[in-house]
Task: structure prediction
Amino acid sequence: MRWSRAFIPTLKEDPQEAEAISHKLMVRAGLIRRLTAGAYTYLPMGYKVLRKAKEIIRQEMNSSGATELLMPALQPPELWKKTGRYDVIGDVMIKFKDRHGKEIALGPTHEEVITNIISKEVRSYKDLPLILYQIQNKFRDELRPRFGVVRSCEFTMKDAYSFDVDAEAMEKSYKAMYDAYCRIFERCGLPYIAVEADSGLMGGTGSHEFMVPSEIGEDQIIICSACGYAASTEVAAIGEPEGTLENSAKTDKMEEVNTPGVRTVEEVSDFLKAKKKDLIKTLIYVTGDEVVAVLLRGDHEANEAKIKNHLKVDAIELATEDKVKETTGGPMGFSGPIGLKVRIIADNAVKVMTYAIVGANKQDTHLRNIDPGKDFSVNEWADLRTISECDVCPKCGGNIEIKQAIEIGHTFKLGTKYTKPLNATFLDEKGKEQDIVMGCYGIGVNRILASLIENSYDENGIIWPVSFSPCDVVIVPVKKSDKELWSEAVRIYKELTRDGVDVLLDDREKSPGVKFKDADLVGFPVQIVIGKKSLAEGKIEVKIRATGEKQLIDKNDVVDHIKKTINNG
Result:
């Protein structure tokens, strides 16, 4: 391939809309171009890298016993209504009506579709187990597309689905997919961490996320330095506190205090010269037709995944201002637990609080010297908050570290969440009808590219591993118009190409500086530089992009040297 024909439109400056390093470099290196918010064209070099990711995934999925198929992006919403996810997913699903007035959805994921297929084709336990997968574009109307291909509205995803006769057999399929994921991400050169995770919208009895630490990651994970335990902050458990939380305001008299215009924890603590941990914040949530009050210590953050799991619901949302007033009698920002007529659930940390400050459920007013159990009742106690670095490891009690991370894969133990409502059953050995037990396994293919770049770049551009680079080698003749340099470049190009090496020949009439900068920017692992002085001595310069190391190699040995270098990774 010659550079002049390859269509690699590199840029000197960062695009204005780009925040993440990966987004900036993918645009500058000519890998992608933005069409509209959340939608990107993969240009030739970018598409080559994407195809390499897909090929690694295919190889490992096939070797693990999975079989590839392809399902339609157009989906009937009726399937989603049967599983109850139509209302839960809400506006994220892109919907439209066809010319016959029938509603159609662009698939954000394919659990309902694959289960519908299986329900019509599988009849007996002899047809199981099955693991099917696809690599296909998905569509989601993201509220805020960002970080380039990390969070986009159209994206490429590998999703696999396992179907088994029972939970024990499903565990075997799950283990096979989990191990395949580890091999995939290792081959991709990603510093991934597998963590316990919340199943969220997907449902089921358990899941793992495969995360790559990154400053732009939208998820948080905890890692224990002592035992190695890792989990998403959404599921990391927090033990019940012991003893009593000390508070300097030791008086048994409940006191009503005027707090004009003071609503937030920070504002209240500053105004009353108290610590944030001395406050109990009351959050009003709505789930379906039920209104629930959630109590947390002032310095703790609500964990909506834990709250949903405790309530056994698919979705919750904070109440509107009108709903808060209807529920508490006071405006938002002054809610408190005393006198509430709704279900009250409280985080375990609230249980040991004394002489606390709470909202009074009326304008510009708070109450202090409040004790849980004495001044108000709680219906249920639970772990409802997000773990912090002030907490300890839930497994061993050691110190933990919290990191931002990009989710690149997620595995789920779905059980019968989809097979039961969609009537996917089989006849067992005794001829009795049973629900098929299911697992689900997703990989964000685009995110593999972004995660690699986020973890492998320098001030000059991308640093690709050989397994992922759009080309193994770039040949840079310092001056194309020099017949001797050009002839040597073409010779090496033909010999490497003949031996199966993926080579890009820079045939542009550009200055050496421009060529060198572009080679570094796009990130080709090996650069062959053919210059007048070195060639006169029978030598050719070989540069390794990752280390910057340069060697002068005899021109007759350069092809064999390059092949050995590439084979060694």
Remarks:
- The chain has a mean pLDDT of 94.
